[in-house]
Write a structure and sequence with these properties.
Blueprint: H1 5-24, E1 33-38, H2 47-61, E2 65-69, H3 96-115, H4 118-129, E3 134-139, H5 146-159, E4 163-166, H6 173-183, E5 186-189, H7 194-201, E6 207-209, H8 213-218, H9 223-230, E7 236-239, E8 241-242, E9 248-249, H10 258-268, E10 272-276, H11 287-301
Parallel strand pairs: 1-2, 1-10, 2-3, 3-4, 4-5, 5-6, 7-10
Antiparallel strand pairs: 8-9
Helix pairs in contact: 2-11, 4-5, 5-6
């Protein structure tokens, strides 16, 4: 069937309207900064208790999207938070017995990842979506095999995420790049070694940066200059305030120059998500602190 010019224009308009509605369903505005929650802000919550608190916090802080931390998804037995574990690494070298235990735990986690039904992740996604919220990104650690890496992409997709955030070891770069190309999914690289990350960016069209401006500040890197130089390679960034060479601090009390960074993106009209990441002393399971941080960021970009 041949369409008239009027029918063709009408069809194009309808498609555009549908796309706009899809974006707006999660509060997305073209050429704007979106604020989201990095659930690292609630890092002390175990998997058993996390999801309801995260949802409550997002609603209180008026944040419709989140970057979901893997410890809030994977069973708590694989990710002990206290007194030791990934958030409180031991200060001394592990004993041979502890090394064996770590290997056994890693093997059990791999088995869980390869066998857990996708319905588990579908249920998590549905729990968020019923509240009008979205898991936009999944923050995870990759495994060492192609099968496990592929499975993690499927998990992220099933959660509804459009990207995976990770600190990617150089040895895993090629396998993760192949999986990203296969799944056509963004991998947002956390920045610790900038030279290494830049090498990794060249490996896949789906690789981007997800810097933390607080961590940059702690490393005595000027966050404003960093984003001005690298923003075209960024998919998102974490909002955190900190002191140069020092600790994280409440938003507005440090030197990460949150205001200048947000205003840069606002002026550039770059569609990007800024994830609220408050990890200063006293946070970890505090929705109230997340609400304060989100309100501070919102006041800067003019979202009342």
């Amino acid at each position: 069937m041949k369409l008239s010019r009027r029918q063709f224009n009408h069809a194009i308009g309808a498609v555009a309207a549908i796309a706009a509605c899809s974006r707006q369903s999660f509060g997305f505005t073209e050429n704007s900064i979106k604020l989201g929650l990095n659930t690292w802000s609630l890092r002390a919550l175990s998997q058993e208790e996390a999801i309801p608190v995260i949802i409550q916090t997002m609603k209180q802080a008026r944040l419709q999207e989140c970057q979901l931390l893997f410890t809030h998804v994977e069973p708590a037995k694989f990710n002990p938070v206290f007194p030791a574990g990934i958030f409180n690494p031991p200060k001394s070298s592990p004993t041979p017995q502890q090394l064996e235990e770590q290997k056994a735990t890693a093997a059990a986690l791999t088995e869980w990842r390869l066998s857990v039904p996708m319905s588990y992740f579908e249920d998590i996604r549905s729990t968020f979506e019923r509240q009008g919220l979205r898991i936009k990104s999944y923050s995870n650690r990759f495994g060492s095999s192609e099968a496990e890496i592929d499975r993690l992409f499927l998990m992220a997709k099933t959660l509804g995420a459009d990207s995976i955030v990770t600190r990617l070891p150089a040895a895993s770069t090629s396998m993760v790049a192949a999986a990203a190309d296969k799944h056509r999914m963004i991998v947002s690289l956390q920045v610790s070694d900038l030279d290494e990350v830049k090498k990794q960016l060249a490996v896949s069209q789906y690789f981007r940066m997800d810097p933390d401006i607080g961590d940059l500040t702690k490393a005595k890197i000027n966050a404003v200059q960093f984003v001005e130089t690298n923003y075209t390679s960024m998919s998102a960034f974490d909002l955190k305030d900190a002191m140069p060479g020092g600790p994280s601090v409440p938003f507005g009390e440090g030197e990460a120059r949150i205001k200048a960074v947000l205003q840069f993106f606002k002026n550039k009209q770059v569609p990007i998500t800024a994830y609220v990441d408050c990890d200063y002393a006293g946070t970890g399971r505090s929705p109230e602190e997340v609400v304060k941080c989100a309100a501070y960021a919102r006041s800067i970009i003019g979202q009342a």
